[in-house]
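Residues pack. Consider this:
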Amino acid sequence: MKTKLENINEWVNKAFPENSFMIPDGFEDAFMGVAIQFNKPIAIIDYDKCLNILLKDGMSYHEAEEYMEFNVIDAYVGENTPAFLFKYKNYEISRNTND
């Protein structure tokens, strides 16, 4: 049986044969799809799902946020660096509870 990463790579190779994508190690379950920016496809990764993956791995919420900010989002890995999706709905919910 294929892993999720193998399935993603197979789909990417069929849909975008001339491009490669970067998915941060361990965050395959947070892969949402592909966006086109300036005629260049880039991987889209769900930020909240990344946090949940880190929480399941034993990090506190604060540790997970800090890890994402300093080790994942701020990491430039070349032209294939993925984009991270911050859902508007989640922003509104967290914003209202922090007021």
Observations:
- The first strand starts at residue 31 and ends at 37.
- The helical segments are 4-15, 47-56, 61-73, 88-98.
- The chain has a mean pLDDT of 87.
- The two ends are 47 Å apart (CA to CA).
